[in-house]
Amino acid sequence: MKLGKFTTKSQPETFDLGFRFATELKPGDVVALFGDLGAGKTEFIKGICSYFKVDELVNSPTFTIMNQYAGLLDDNEIPILHIDLYRIKKSNELKEIGFDEIIFSNDSIKLVEWADKAFGILPPDSYSVNINFKKNNENERVITID
């Protein structure tokens, strides 16, 4: 899948784009997701998790900060870490949860919602996914993947 700008018109299309994007991912990758509340970040992540055959319920870990899912890549188990920084207010809170150790590990795929609250800790080669409401149409999203 080529990176770039996409428009989705429904939750299933956002899910499908996440699924197709997941073909690019490998252990060690970080996906930084940006977008307003309700924009579709979790739906995109559900698509990624579906590609990796995650059997567990995928939901945003707003209160627990991180969920770990067991995925499969080429018949090998791969941890997928779903991190939600919505409730993070200060950089020392990231240190308390060991965020920098987690984010730089090479054995898992890390999916970070509200990545703008990572206070510059994300690796420079992270994927960036910006999900925005399309102007004048609340059901469509403009998704830019870099």
Explain what you see:
- With 146 residues, the protein is an alpha/beta fold.
- It has a single domain (4-145), classed as Rossmann fold (3-Layer(aba) Sandwich), CATH 3.40.50.300.
- The protein is built from four helices and seven strands, in the order βαβαββααβββ.
- Strands 1-7-6-2-5-4-3 form a seven-stranded mixed sheet, with helices on one face.
- A hairpin with a 2-residue loop joins β6 (127-134) and β7 (137-145).
- α1 (11-21) packs across α2.
- The mean pLDDT is 94.
Main features:
single chain, 146 residues, alpha/beta, Rossmann fold, globular
Secondary structure topology:
Layout: E1 4-8, H1 11-21, E2 30-35, H2 41-51, E3 66-73, E4 76-84, H3 91-96, H4 99-103, E5 109-113, E6 127-134, E7 137-145
Parallel strand pairs: 2-5, 2-6, 4-5
Antiparallel strand pairs: 1-7, 3-4, 6-7
Helix pairs in contact: 1-2
Determine the fraction of residues in helical runs and give it as a percent range. 10-25%
CATH superfamily, please?
P-loop containing nucleotide triphosphate hydrolases
Main sheet summary: 7 strands, mixed
Structural class by helix and strand composition: alpha/beta
